[in-house]
Write a structure and sequence with these properties.
60s Ribosomal Protein L30, Chain: A; two-stranded antiparallel sheet; single chain; 2 domains; alpha+beta
């Protein structure tokens, strides 16, 4: 039964895709990392994107670790060593890994509260013929990624409504 729930997702990924577009930007000292990415998704009307590259540093780090309801907040100097995930104006899902001055590395779900220290250079790629949304689909207790092709969405003009 679970495999049947994945069929629309697999079908959406299997079709040939249009050429991705790229949006690159820099966040400045004091800006919130998540808010900056979400603002770019809104400004560029990104419906289906992903983080292609990210480097920079933080003074404050806020992460939600696996299976924990609350975020962990730490202050110091951190290097962004990895940022990955899906980006959409309809809902994003991002994971961040940072290292401290000793090289110790931690990672988890990116949440508000990660403040840029010197810079955050972000490159987002966008699949122009897809739409990413998030919905409770019964596979988990959380709103999970839903992937639709634009042609399927155009039937009624509502993202994510087509089978």
């Amino acid at each position: 039964m679970r495999i049947l729930a994945l069929l629309p997702l697999l079908a959406a990924c299997a079709a040939p895709a249009a050429t991705p577009t790229v949006h690159a930007f820099r966040l400045l000292p004091g800006q919130d990392l998540l808010a900056g990415i979400e603002e770019a998704a809104q400004r560029h009307a990104i419906d289906a994107g992903w983080v292609a590259a990210a480097v920079g540093s933080l003074t404050d780090c806020a992460l939600r670790f696996a299976d924990r309801p609350q975020a962990s907040h730490t202050t110091g100097r951190f290097e962004i060593v990895s940022l990955c995930g899906t980006v959409s104006r309809h809902g994003s899902h991002l994971h961040l890994a940072v290292s401290d001055a000793e090289g110790r590395t931690i990672g988890g779900h990116l949440v508000p509260g990660c403040r840029v220290y010197t810079t955050a250079e972000i490159v987002l790629c966008v699949a122009p013929d897809h739409v990413f949304t998030r919905a409770h689909d019964g596979t988990t207790p959380w709103a999970e990624l839903q992937i639709r092709r634009r042609q399927a969405m155009a039937a009624d003009g509502h993202p994510g409504s087509a089978p």
